[in-house]
Amino acid sequence: MAIPTTLTHSTGTDTGSAQVLPRVWPAVTLVAAYWIFRLVTGSLLDLSIYVGFFSMVGAAVLLILLFFAWWLTNRRIRMSERLLAVAAVAVCACVAVKLSDKSIGLFSVVMFGLPMVISAWTFWLLVTRSRSIVIQRVGLLAILCLVFGSYTLVRNDGIDGRQQAAIHWRWSPKAEELFLAERSRLTGIAEPERPDEKKVHAPLELAPGDWPGFRGPQRDGTLRGVQFAADWDATPPKLVWRRRVGPGWSSFAVIGDRLFTQEQRGDLEAVVCLEAGTGSEIWSHEDKARFWDMVAGAGPRATPTFDQGRIYALGATGLLTALDASTGKLHWSRNIVDDSGAKPPMWGFSSSPLVVDGAVIVYAGGADPKGLLAYRTDTGEPAWTAATGPISYSSPQLINVGGESQVLLLSDRGLLAVHPTTGATAWEYSALAPNIWRAVQPRPIGNSQVLIGSEDLGLVLLDLAKDGKTWSATQHWASKAMRPAYNDFILQVGFLYGFDNGIFCCTDVETGKRRWKAGRYGHGQVLLVADQRLLVVLSETGEVVLVPATPEKHQELARLQAVQGKTWNHPVIAHGHLYVRNDEEMACYRLRLIESPAAKQAELPVAAPR
Length: 610
Fold this sequence. Notes:
The protein is an alpha+beta fold and 610 residues long. It has a domain at 6-169. The chain contains nine helices and 39 strands. Helix 1 (25-44) packs antiparallel against helix 2 (49-72), helix 2 packs across helix 4 and helix 3 (79-99) packs parallel to helix 5 (133-151). The longest helix has 24 residues, at 49-72. The chain is globular, with a radius of gyration of 28 Å. The termini are far apart.
């Protein structure tokens, strides 16, 4: 482009001196390349969360370094002007960080604010290239005040799976504040109606149709022995109740007419028991603890586990509690940070406790050998420990292979299998990727195979074999047909169904090849109704979608906007009711069960709304 190369400025003691204007095209090229890259990677390319995030960060860092290198080495600009501009940017950025909400922070100001400043600054240089230096200075100062000042007016309520931030005015009420205000108002009512005390103290036992913990009885996201009407135009799910909930990414455990989950209540982390049929609180156990991160916000990440009349719950800061399921009475508690020496991971402890053979097992990620921890269920005393990688957001998974019980844990070191009574290593599959987050549950396939998945690995099917007393795991196939991030997949008759970077897809277990990819549900979760070969997809925006579990094609049968807001929590169906929640609200919907012996056996009475 043709740009004038000289201009006479009147600048104080330099009155009448001529300044040669900088060539702006390098900056224009950098800015254009940056925004084109952001557009292509954000909208046109099917990148994983990990790759997309670091591509965005890398592009921002490169733009910042190259722009300021161009600016500081440009001899067409007086050195005093160059240094003054850089100093102004640095001071304004520091002030913005200091005055901004904690959810904004240095990272947001630098990685998002600076590219905006550079873009606006470049445009201003371009349109004022023939104007006085005073105008250029004033324009730059205005740009800095507008861009960096805007960060002091807003807050970030988290990031979704597409790396899009939920930006709100700083003074607008948060969902957690609305929840706490509502809770305070309701608890302030004189003599609030309480559940029947006899019912509260009745012992709880696992029964058919119950959902005892994370992803169901086998931690595979599969509902068996139940069918319901899938024509929601004719027989739509009926809303039974809806209520606010404290922030957290827990799912539910359902035992009879009790519903168990976890939530954040200000500075208190709570395990909560509700009436399944009304949403009324029966009891809660609260600990002084709060975890928060910029991506997912505050609250617990794991799901409570029911076993033998007790609830076992792990909080995001590492507090493991054993509670009486009927009353909420505390039996014992442990701090896995103290027991393992581990620090809470970037997004909090997320391990849903696994109870097997009198031990409750959780992932801590401490230095060898304190990665996987087991505690005696009766006393809470340590039973054993096992070495793992330092990063995992997955949960222990019980499998049976060759008639032998083993506990699996997927971490950044790979897949570990240990004996549940001793913690001794049975076998290990090495897949070292330091500091890579892996969150998806391992899935046993028959009696001799295990399937693992993560963003970096894609899918890997392992063959297990035993030679004498020695186990081994070898790769059967590896595939990038599905790259699950924190979205668990399910298995139905030789085919996998799950999420590949926010798009639902089907993959053949025998070959690892994709059969179809369709359905933009964001980074949601999925549940299988096995007897109907029906998928219940809960989208990232809170919609429930019914999809047939068939490898032929993707098809939608019905949709329901169940809850509002970002939804990463796993859905649950128990006793003819669908339970969904996110970090703002929870809801219960009654489904019309199809009359069958299996369905009748599974449907237990649920407390009627009052």
